[in-house]
Hints:
The chain has helices spanning about 1-5, 10-45, 160-165, 195-220, and strands at about 50-55, 65-70, 75-85, 90-100, 105-115, 130-135, 150-155, 175-180. It is of the alpha/beta class and about 220 residues long. α2 (about 10-45) packs antiparallel against α4. The longest helix has about 35 residues, at about 10-45.
Amino acid sequence: MDKLKQLPYKFLFYFGITVVFIFLGLSYWQLNSYREDKSNLESLLDNSKKYIIELSEVNNYKQFDTITIYEPLVIEKTWFLRSRVLNGQSGYNLIHLVTNSDRNSLIVNRGWVPIESTIEQFAEQKFTDYTGKLLFYNEQTIGQDDIIGSDYLFRIDKTFIESEMNVKLPEYYLALTEKCGLKVECIDITQPYDAPHLSYSFQWLFFAICLTIVIFRKNKLI
């Protein structure tokens, strides 16, 4: 305690140590994000099991399961998901609301289309099966809100789509991984789970160590 009272740079010591703990917290958070994304990525890449199901059975499965739906489905509504880039080229994801004969509904992310595309050019396409991965919907974040009646979406928001289209959606939407359609590129669904969280974790840890050394040297504790 006497040493702390005699510190030549008390403010630097107390403020700096607080910042060090913040850096350590950020490092731990990034490490946990890395572990979670690694687990998710392994699940996404696992295609050892493929389930052939009916649309009404979607809720019986879990996120990242690979499914195929063969039953006839009707495209009720199509949107473009904004600001999607593929190989440096701007475009959209093609999003369908599909229903079966029992009026069960499902959101399908068909894939990427270039920015000059129009919704009308996909209206006549017919699809016999839907194969892909089940994913959770996008979380609502601060930003632009989706507009009722628009052909464009900022995110795949379950609550918004249910409200606009007066439907009940399952707990997941389907991102196609094959047979995505004419002039449609299947998307890389692993991309959101391939972030450099481990590098960021080491970066924050390095900052914490460097700042600790500066604080201790300035206060002649080492």
